[in-house]
Amino acid sequence: PWQGVKKCEAFGPSPMQNSPAPFMFWSSEFLIPKEPISEDCLYLNVWTKAKKREEKLPVLVYIYGGGFRSGGAGCAIYDGEAMAKKGVVFVSINYRVGVFGFFAHPELTEESGHNASGNYAIMDMIAALQWVKNNIAAFGGDPGNVTIAGQSAGSFGVNFLTISPLAKGLFHKAIAQSGAGFLSSPRRSNMDLKDAENNGVEYATKLGASNIMDLRAISAEEIQKTEGGMSGPFNDGYVIIESVMDAYLNGRQNDVPVIVGWNKDDKVMLRAAPAEEFREQMKSRFGDLSDEFFAAYPATTEEEAMQSQFDLGRDEVFGIQMYTWAKVQTNVSKSPVYLYNFNRAVPASTPETQFGAFHSGEIVYAYDNLHTLNRPWEPVDQNIADVMSNYWTNFIKSGNPNAEGLPEWSAYDPNDENVLILDIETRQTSIPDKVKFSFWETYYESLKQ
Fold first, then answer.
1. Which of 5, 21, 156, 335 lies most in the core, judged by the most C-beta atoms within 10 Å?
2. Which of 137, 142, 181, 191 is nearest to 161 (CA)?
3. Which residues are catalytic?
4. Between β-strands 173-177 and 141-151, what pairing exists: parallel, antiparallel or unpaired?
């Protein structure tokens, strides 16, 4: 607490992480400032146009991405002014990342009071939502109309918040952009508390620490230099008590309307293996399902193999998860789900930096923040930003993205397989990659046998 007026004129420190540097698709505009970075990082930011608390404007709580290893709210692309002008109280939050966000250890479990450790990043998100519930009215926001939204790791965070019993009643709608955890495979196993604790003990040994007190004596900077110690999100029996799929199928999810989707070029790599090597890898991986795999992801030429590898990474990590969310929610929930596919190739200054509709590229469109990226924008880009941010704003206000002047966007219907394509022309159509998703459904079904 403090006396008088507290001057909040700058973002608080970002969470502990390695010094941010451009990589893959992400130029400096996608990164947090190089400093301050600190353990003292649990701050949030509020934009509002309300003049008095009685206005009860709808609230958006935005959760950043970064693979749960990096990121922070003090990044320009998460600016909330444009959404605030549209009548939304925009809140961006920080949460701990990397080992500081997910470290589990038997001693931490014992001292916790709830027989669990790890998942601190998700607990940070929940703490921010509790703060919003208790305080957002002072900013003219309505604590009874809160939407959570996130992209990539932030989208995974949204997904886990929809199944966490600790988040019950703290939000009323959700937007998930490229990230969810419905399907598990041998490449993406479900970790439990014991596994995470074992990881923590191994990590402590690597640091030369025999107990938690030893670990607490080591500087955050030194810990950050040491690889490992990150386990989650995982089933700790407290924050997360079951898999995402089980929570939904058993009717224990936080049943709210959602927008879910992914990007056309949600790649997870930039370089592809030669066609012959790729074919052998996939035959080894998929065995009896190889023919079905290559029907969906052909690799008869080098060009085909390269594109199929890019599509494979997109679909396995993002596409099939978001598609499954839409299907499962439609089958088991009362609340609607709206499915989108962002296809606009984000303009680039040089051919070398043209990555198409890349992972994270849609963020500045969704929140009307093109001005935060130094790109050769065309009039069509601002039009897409207007359309997309208006869909988002309408949904945040009412749970329905539609309004006069916007192309119709129907709730997902498994019979129609409808998806909204956000591109030079925004339109509703059938899912373009259904043959690929059909393969993944067959594959995951085979894992149950």
1. 156
2. 181
3. 152
4. parallel
Token pair of 141, please? Answer: 């926001």
**CB of 369 within 8 A of CB of 90?**
no
CA separation (Å) from 1 to 4, 40, 95, 136, 351? Answer: 10, 16, 21, 17, 52
Q: pLDDT tens across 67-100, in order?
A: 999 999 999 999 999 999 999 999 999 999 999 9
* CA dist 265 → 14, 318, 345, 360 (Å): 28, 10, 8, 10
Structure tokens at 437: 């998703």
Q: At what angle do helices 320-332 and 434-447 cross, to 10 degrees?
A: 80
Cβ partners under 8 Å of residue 435, min gap 6: 295, 296
Nearest alpha carbon to residue 12 among 52, 30, 39, 51: 39
Decide if pLDDT at 108 tops 70. yes
Strand partners, 151: 177
Beta strand extents in 326-370 (DSSP E only): 337-342
Question: In a 3-state reduction of DSSP, which class is residue 13?
Answer: coil
Alpha-carbon distance of 176 to 423, in angstroms, equals 19
Angle between helix axes 120-135 and 153-161 (nearest 10 degrees) is: 70
98 Rama class: left (phi>0) / alpha (psi -120 to 50) / beta:
left
| pLDDT: which is higher, 441 or 7 | 441
CA separation for the pair 81, 220 (Å, rounded)? 33
Between CA 182 and CA 160 the distance in angstroms is 10
